[in-house]
Design brief:
The protein is α+β, with helices and mostly antiparallel strands. It folds into 4 domains: about 180 residues, GAF domain (Beta-Lactamase, 2-Layer Sandwich), CATH 3.30.450; about 100 residues, PAS domain (Beta-Lactamase), CATH 3.30.450.20; about 90 residues, no CATH class; about 160 residues, Histidine kinase-like ATPase, C-terminal domain (Heat Shock Protein 90), CATH 3.30.565. It is rod-shaped and about 175 Å long. Bound molecules: adenosine-5'-diphosphate. Adenosine-5'-diphosphate (ADP) binds next to helix 13 and helix 15. Adenosine-5'-diphosphate binds next to helix 13 and helix 15.
């Protein structure tokens, strides 16, 4: 191995020691590539030495097992190549010893010490006669490398040498640690950079593949960036949109509202979801549901095409409206049928009375008293007909809940009067057991009568086909324990099957061909509005059913 020593001993001017250490410190402080700094330290050390010396620094890898990045400016490249990658554990030379034992190794005379036979193979050809190797420690006491000095005659370090070595080993430690920190920082930066790139790629992918309309706009609403979904969904290209506000795309009816949303965003408020219609390139309008948020001078918005669900919603509400209309028509026809049915009886009475009256007046001599009496009956029947109409209208009207103190017996009597013709016609025998001690209740008279009327009508309907027993109908009021009142309607009709019992009070449950199935449903809601209860039960030990409601007195 050739010892190259660029610049001869004589030609290299020796600097003052203070100057030298100052320069070494500055070089280390300035940083730069580790090799350059370490080589500078070696050179300076060589310059400082009284005797001819070659200084080498052997940094270790992070886990202190292998030498790497050797700095040996006084030796040729082959030395570096031989040393880099050498395992500390081989213990072939003083540096390996110094690194593994953490002790300075001083070999004053290589030739005289049999321990260093292997090292002599390297040292002898170069004329190296003595070698010192000092571990370079980090602040934490870890070995960062070794600092080696090769002399060309047998030699022990002088106290000056020791001080210089300590000083330069310290400088080398700083340089190696700084280099490691820089490498770690570089690795970290690279990882961060890779992460940022990956995230950007991911965002870009979301941006590109998202089916939602994504847009970045300025606070003035001018489009700065749009994703490909705009082309897929609405048929507009970037060129159509960028640099313009979206006003021209908006349905005229949505412009003002959308402008207001944009103003809110420009003021830095997040918007709750809002919807508007955007025109597609084919002229059709798409319903878009937006979510947008401002960030500094940008607005980020995401819009989902909800045209289909809007259509479905519209269809649903159209169907709902149609259903409501049909129900109204059905209710109306039921009302008409009821009116016709209820009014028919007094009307035929009126006609019969009027005919009788005419006959009596036409008789010779005219039967004036008889005619007067039949005219009175005509008036009575006319009054009854108009009464029926008034009550049926009340039954179907949607008037407000009007509370008043009332006697439930009176209310029941009025309904019974309304029905008496009907009952007679259908051969129904009605018994009324109305309690004398019934307390006054507070309630809506018309609505409670509506309930009673519904219970009586159902009872009559339930007995329409009964032929093998009397069609007995009982209406009963009683004072309840506590302070309530109870009204019961008991019939001898078809009774209640378990299935009917389950569904009786459901809206639109009916077993009648012309039934609507809302009577009991409405009745229950009326009773509940009176803080009461409506229930049904099969009669015990006899056919038919009993329907009862109870309401608190004076509620
Ligand atoms: P609808 O107009 O169909 O009679 P309701 O809600 O008043 O509507 O009654 C619902 C159903 O409850 C009836 O169709 C019938 O099947 C049953 N129901 C009501 N009252 C009685 C009763 N007294 N006896 C037997 N079944 C009854």
């Amino acid at each position: 191995m050739d010892v190259s020593y660029p610049g001869s001993e004589a030609s290299r001017p020796r600097r003052a020691r203070q100057e030298t250490t100052q320069a070494a410190a500055e070089t280390v402080a300035e940083g730069g590539p580790l090799a350059g700094v370490l080589e500078f330290l070696c050179r300076t050390m060589e310059d400082e030495s009284v005797d001819r010396v070659i200084a080498c620094i052997h940094p270790l890898n992070e886990d202190a097992t292998v030498f790497c990045d050797t700095a040996a400016p006084g030796l040729d490249r082959s030395y570096r190549e031989a040393t880099d990658g050498m395992l500390v554990s081989t213990l072939t030379g003083p540096c390996c010893y110094a690194a593994s034992t953490r002790q300075t190794v001083v070999v004053p005379d290589v030739a005289a010490d049999p321990k260093w036979v292997k090292f002599r193979a390297f040292a002898d050809p170069l004329g190296i006669r003595s070698c010192w190797s000092t571990p370079i420690f980090s602040n934490e006491g870890n070995v960062l490398g070794t600092f080696a000095h090769y002399y060309f005659e047998p030699r022990d370090p002088s106290p000056r040498d020791e001080r210089m070595i300590e000083l330069f080993a310290r400088a080398a430690a700083v340089a190696i640690e700084r280099s490691r920190a820089e490498a770690a920082l570089r690795a970290l930066n690279e990882t961060l950079e890779q992460r940022v790139q990956a995230e950007t790629r991911e965002r870009l992918q979301i941006w590109n593949v998202s089916q939602d309309l994504l847009v970045i706009a300025g606070l003035d609403g001018i489009c700065l960036n749009v994703n490909p979904a705009w082309t897929v969904t609405l048929g507009w290209s970037e060129a159509d949109l960028l640099g313009k506000s979206s006003q021209w795309l908006l349905h005229p009816d949505d412009r003002e509202r959308s402008r207001a949303e944009l103003d809110q965003l420009a003021k830095g408020h997040k918007t709750v979801r809002f919807e508007n219609r955007l025109r597609a390139s084919d002229g059709s309008y798409h319903w878009i549901s937006w979510k947008a948020a401002p960030d500094r001078d940008r607005i980020y918005a995401m819009g989902r095409d909800i045209t289909e669900s809007k259509r479905a919603q519209d269809a649903l509400s159209r169907a709902g409206a149609e259903l409501a209309r049909v129900s109204r028509v059905t209710a109306l026809s039921a009302l008409t049928a009821s009116i016709a049915h209820e009014v028919n009886q007094p009307l035929s009475g009126i006609i019969t009375n009027a005919e009788t009256c005419l006959r009596m007046l036409d008789a010779t001599p005219p039967n004036v008293d008889g005619a007067r009496e039949t005219a009175r009956r005509t008036i009575r029947d006319g009054g009854r007909a108009s009464d029926v109409i008034a009550r049926l209208r009340a039954l179907f009207s949607k008037r407000e809940f009007a509370l008043e103190p009332l006697d439930l017996n009176d209310a029941a009597r009025e309904v019974i009067a309304l029905f008496s013709n009907d009952f007679q016609r259908n051969r129904i025998r009605l018994h009324a057991e109305l309690a004398d001690d019934l307390p006054t209740v507070t309630g809506d008279r018309i609505q409670l009568q509506q309930v009673i009327l519904n219970l009586l009508r159902n009872a009559a309907d339930a007995m329409i086909d009964v032929a093998d027993r009397p069609r007995e109908l009982l209406i009963k009021t009683e004072r309840e324990s506590g302070d309530g009142v109870r009204l019961t309607v008991r019939d001898a009709g078809v009774g209640l099957s378990p299935q009917t019992l389950d569904s009786l009070f459901d809206a639109f449950y009916t077993t009648k061909s012309g039934g609507m199935g809302i009577g009991l449903f409405i009745s229950r809601s009326i009773i509940e509005r009176h803080h009461g209860r409506l229930w049904a039960e099969p009669n015990e030990g006899m056919p038919g059913a009993s329907f009862s409601f109870s309401i608190p007195a004076g509620n």
